Input
Amino acid sequence: MEARLTAQAAVLYANGMRYLARAEQAELLDHSEHFLRHATKLLRLHNETTDALSRYRRRGEQRVVVQHQYVQVNEGGSALVAGQFVHGSGEGERTKNGIPHG
Output
């Protein structure tokens, strides 16, 4: 299965690039658009095939990475955390993921 997906991805990529080159060399706009449409379809299929190959290699395994960030904001200071401004209250405010934390 892996070999088939790899071969399919390689052929789709090669043909997609060939159609892009033809589109660039086409003298008529209609021909150029025709080649671009086909190149787009082939390269989209290439991406779907590489995604399928990636899923096959993972065998359904998914990884979730959780990161906790602590920020110390002192008096008069401010920080941008998780898209929110955090301003110091004078005693040094600790935040966890942009939310004030004791």
The chain has a mean pLDDT of 82. The first strand starts at residue 70 and ends at 73. The chain has two domains: 2-58, 70-101. Residues 29-58 form the longest helix (30 residues).
